[in-house]
Structures are given as structure tokens and as C-alpha cells.
Amino acid sequence: MGGIIFSVSSSFTPFLLICLFLAYSSTATMDLSTDAMALLALKSRLIGESSSLNWTDNTTSLVCNWTGVTCGSRHRRVVGLDLSGMGLQGSLPPEIGNLTFLNSLDMSINHFSGNLPQELSRLRRLRFMDLGVNDLNGQIPPSIGFLNKLRILRLNNNSFNGFLPSSIGNASKLERLILQNNEMGGAIPTLVFNLSKLEILKLGFNKFVGTLPSHLCSGTPKIILLVLQENELEGEIPSNMSACTQLQVIAMLGNKLSGSIPSDLSSPFSQLQVVLLGNNRLVGELPEALGEWKALEHFNIDMNNITGTIPLGLSNLTNLQRFSILNNQITGIIEIAFSSNLY
Asked: Which tens digits make up the pLDDT trace of 200-230?
């Protein structure tokens, strides 16, 4: 009986192989077709001129040759979509979530409007997303936290409102979070300051409130640009800022920050180049170690309540180009050799 079963199985083996091959081919075609349908759904949402896109129903088999589309060499799926700066107007369809092999999405500098579809959370391979400089609005969906491979997220210069979801802290590989020039409010989620790979954080020109966590530098040790200007942040600047050894720019002007400027805001060996703390409620005196901040280029504390004298040693700061202390109660003389470059 075993021989009979073996004989029958052997006779069916070529047939089964053919079926498996056809099934695989059909699946591959369906996947590519799914990508094409998702892109056509996006095109159907466009308003007005879209002739720059050569996306048509009768060329779906050539989707990898469509404008702005990049396909992977292995799976022949859409892995990149770049429609930046094409003047497109419309909204994002939920079908965009069907581009499941996508790792780069750039639709910046257009006129896309409406909300971000929840289905974006299905793009689990996504590493780069830039939807900046559009007319998008509504809240950033909490499902954005499911994009755990995301490294760069740019949603700047839109009209997003509501809170920044705390789930953003689940995007543990995030290196750049750029959300400036929106209408977002509430407290900045503490988990943002636990993103250990974060290098650039730009949340300026929003309506964020609350205080900065004391563990800011220990949680984001790789931070290079910290831009939180023109919000409604309160409380003191964390006292251990010198622990942010990679920090080059700290911009917090136009908030309601109080307390004094931390004496260890920088160190002689740090890379801090730009300090913008103007238009806050800071008190106390300028740090005595200011003359040792060797990399400093631009220093602004206008419109605070700083008192005391200008620290000695500014002439040691050979990279210093701007030093602005207007509308404070500071006395002293800036070295004449530098006065032509400072204000």
C-alpha cells in the first residue's frame, strides 16, 4: 500500500509544482496590482491638474515606471514614493496603507489637505515620511506609534492641532521629529524625551505647554538640535544640559521659562553653537563660564530679567558672531575688538 501511495504522489508532483508556481505568480501579480490600485486611489483624490503623473488604469503592469515610484529589486513592490514639490492638491486616501512595502514616503511641498488616514499605521516598513509644507489638519493619529522602523518624521508647516500622541514614544528608532509651524497644544509627551536615538527635535511655533523633564539629556543623549521656540512652555531649563554632549542648537525663545540660565548649559569641550533664550522670564546672572563656551556663535537672551555684569572672557570666543542681551538689567562692557560683530 505504501508503494501505491508513493506512486500516486510521484505522478502528481509536477502538477503540484506547476500549481504552486502559478499561485506564487498570481500572488506576486496581485501584490503589484494592489500597489497600483493604491496609487490610483491617491490620484483619484487629486483636484485639478495632475498631468505630471503618468498613472493610468491601462499601465498598472508598469507601475514601477510611474512618476515618483521606486520598486524594490527583490520583491518588485513599491518601496519609495516621491511626489515632493509637484504642486499637487487633494487628500490622502485610506488605500495608501496598502503600500505595505513602502519605506520612503515624500509628499512634501504640495497642497494636500484633510486628515492623516489611520491606515498609515500599516506601513510597518516605513523609515522616512515627509508630509511637510502642506495644508493637512486634524490630529496626528495615535497609530503613528506603530511605525516602529520610522527614523525621520516631518509634518512641519501644516495645520495639525490637538495633542501630540504619547504613542510617538514607541517609534524607538526615531532620529528626527520635525513638527514646527502647526497648531498643536498640550504637554509634550515625556516619552518623546526617552527616544534615545533622537538627534533633531523641532516643535517650535506651536502651542505646547508644561515643563521640560529633568532627564531630558539622559533620555536623548544624541540630541543635536533642540528647537522649542514660540510655545507656552513654563518652568526651568533642566540643570544638566551639559550632559547633552552633542547639542549644537538650543532654541527656546518666546516661551514662559523661568529660573536662571544653568551654569553648566555648556562646557569648554561642548559643540554648542546657538543659544536662543530671548523673550522668556529668566532671572539671575549670566553664567561665569560663558567665556569658555568655545564653539558659541549666536547668543540671545533679549527681553528677560537677567541682572549682573557681562562675564569676562568673551574675547576668547573666536567664533562668536551675535551676542544680544537687550531689555535686561545687565551692565558691563563688551570688548571693543568684538563690538562691531555683536549687538
From this structure: 999 999 999 999 999 999 999 999 999 999 9
Strand, helix or coil at 29? helix
pLDDT in tens, 258-294: 999 988 787 766 799 999 999 999 999 998 888 888 8
How do 78-82 and 69-71 pair as beta strands? antiparallel
* 319-331-263 Cα angle (round to 5): 55
Cell numbers 546657538 correspond to 274
Strands 128-130 and 152-154: parallel
Q: What is the DSSP letter of 112?
A: E
Cell numbers given for 116 = 492623516
Tell me which residue of 169, 167, 141 sits closest to 155, measured CA to CA.
141
Q: Read out DSSP for 273-296?
A: -EEE--SS--BSB--GGGGG-TT-
Residue type, 70: T
Give whole-number Cα distances, 334 to 276, 302, 322, 326, 337, in Å: 19, 16, 12, 13, 8
| DSSP secondary structure code for residue 205 in this structure | S
Q: Which residues contact 171 (CB under 8 A, 6 or more apart)?
A: 144, 145, 147, 148, 150, 153, 195
166 grid coordinates: 504619547
Are 328 and 304 within 8 A, CB to CB?
A: yes
d(CA 92, CA 276): 37
3-class DSSP assignment, residue 138: strand
- Give the HSE-up count for residue 195: Cα atoms under 13 Å, Cβ half-sphere: 30
